[in-house]
Amino acid sequence: MDRRSTGAVMGTLTTKLKRISLLWLEGFREACCFHRVITYCFRSKELAIRMGQCFLLNGFFFLGSIFILRSFIIPTLQWILPDGCLQITSQESCSIGGILRLYSFLRFWLVQLFYVFWFYPLYIFSFILNTIWYNDIAKFGFFAIEKGYSGTKSSSQNNLPAEQNTADRDDKATDFEGVMIGIAEQVYSILLLSFFFLEVYVTGFIPYIGKTLNFLLLSWMYAYYCFEYKWNFSGLRLDKRLDFFESNWAFFAGFGGPCVLAIFLYSPLVSYGVMAILYPLFVMTATGTEADKVITSQRKKWKGEGLGRIPIFVSADYLSMKVLLLFPLQQVQSTKAL
């Protein structure tokens, strides 16, 4: 009996791990469907322009500046201001250690000046522009995807009866309430993701398993960021987003995997530049991904069985609600109602 029960448990565990792997691979594959981006760019001129601007700023200017610094400026400074006796022809001058220390001091501060007057302003400038451009890219991509059946929508809207137009006017009375709910959702979402980012940062310091947890949490975080644009434009409520995300955690862990690889493979500055180029591509693949259909197709093979929900944002949610309690009670209650 013990052997049979052990075998049954192992069989269930193996099946579970296989399903997790398959769903993870589906998410990874969907994230890497970059051919969709080319199709969307052909459909939308505005999208193609924004993507080109993003590649030019982050690839040519930012990463190009790093390449020039490391390949030309620093080697030139080391040639002009050597740090060793082998690069100084005169042994008399080499015996004077003060000169070498002066050379090292000058090299260090010249490089720091390059960072202060070029890299840091460029980083801030690119961060602001990228934030604006990513939203534009998601918007233009969303409209490009909808473009295929926009004609049928426009024809149906032209045939709306007068009663429907009257109902639309009546619905405007509730527009203010909808705007307030939308603002409350955005505030809560910002708090939630901020605390989740802090959680991701802290897990990196955990011994032995810290890097693995950090990679997993970062994968979820970037996957949520990529899909949030689509969910915003489609009007999906925040509570449904979180429920769908946490119920299909394996798929989103796979989707965010390629996004995180750039962070782990390069230095911080280079990883920022690479990620700034790749991120709009992942936003576009997320916009074009019908995650619910992909996940449902897999569940049909499993006879409708899921993997269970993981409360990914439970800690961030708890801290967010604690912060919201600092505000007036009515605002907190309206936020909880979301």
Automatic annotation (TrEMBL):
Signal sequence coordinates: none
Transmembrane segments: 55-73, 108-129, 179-202, 272-289
GO cellular component: endoplasmic reticulum; membrane
Bilayer disposition of the protein: Multi-pass membrane protein
Localization per record: Membrane
BP GO terms, sorted: macroautophagy
Pfam families, A to Z: EI24
Keywords, alphabetical: Membrane, Transmembrane, Transmembrane helix
Domain of life: Eukaryota
Name recorded for this polypeptide: Protein EI24 homolog
Native source species: Olea europaea subsp. europaea
